[in-house]
């Protein structure tokens, strides 16, 4: 659809992607990476059973992204890098343990583990590579893995593999196109902005809270996010002004196209 909400049209049928936990666009705009649950299949204790899938809007075809050696049905929150060469994602360890960050080529090859859990119950989720490909930001509960809601943002240097966990609490971090800012949902569900080193942060929006996906426009002027019980909204990245876009509570994840 257009940014005013007009001309909505379907890319994939509901029977193909009944539930998604993560949506990302390839920089070329020709394909999407999705974490798709094939129907309402629940798996204790992680909820919906999802797997990485590549979708091609031009043909409406879906292709499972099979990563050899990794637990099938345990990948979440995919994100392409700026070149479209890698897909970063959260990978569940096994049926009962935590979640790490991995990356692989879009065809599933060259899978590489990026984070190593301190305990088997910790969770690293929502990876987002910096525009220059040098760093990765993600959310982690390593300092309190049993809380169920305590997540902090962390930075991983992809060259040195040095990991820094910040004091910024939140989830779904997303790097701005210029690499200067990281947007995320804070512990109150507001959209917040932090600097690229995660040493300072401020709330951008107020209640009601946001949830689901979060994405930047190519010019860095807008964010698009799902608002709890209200659907999609555009958010001015400078003023925090919220412009309702689609009043549909089932619309919680969106990305901008070229």
Task: Give an overview of the whole structure.
With 258 residues, the protein is mainly β. It has one domain (19-208): TolB, C-terminal domain (Neuraminidase). It is built from no helices and 21 strands. It has strands spanning 19-25, 32-37, 42-43, 47-48, 51-56, 61-64, 75-80, 87-92, 99-104, 112-113, 124-129, 135-140, 152-157, 163-175, 181-186, 191-195, 201-203, 210-216, 222-227, 231-236, 242-246. The strands form 5 sheets. A 7-stranded antiparallel sheet has the order 11-12-13-14-15-16-17, with no helix packed on it. The protein starts with 18 loop residues before the first strand and ends in a 12-residue tail after the last strand.
Walk me through the topology.
Elements: E1 19-25, E2 32-37, E3 42-43, E4 47-48, E5 51-56, E6 61-64, E7 75-80, E8 87-92, E9 99-104, E10 112-113, E11 124-129, E12 135-140, E13 152-157, E14 163-175, E15 181-186, E16 191-195, E17 201-203, E18 210-216, E19 222-227, E20 231-236, E21 242-246
Give the neighbour order of strands across the main sheet: 11-12-13-14-15-16-17
Binned strand content: 35-45%
How far apart the termini lie comes to 12 Å
Number of helices: 0
Parts with pLDDT < 50 across at least 5 consecutive residues: 40-47
Query: Can you identify the CATH superfamily?
Result: TolB, C-terminal domain
Instruction: Write the CATH architecture name.
Output: 6 Propeller
Number of domains: 1
User: Portion of residues in helices?
Assistant: under 10%
- Biggest beta-sheet profile: 7 strands, antiparallel
Compressed to H and E, one letter per element, the order equals EEEEEEEEEEEEEEEEEEEEE
CATH hierarchy class name: Mainly Beta
Q: CATH fold name, please?
A: Neuraminidase
Give a count of the beta strands, DSSP E runs of length 2 or more. 21
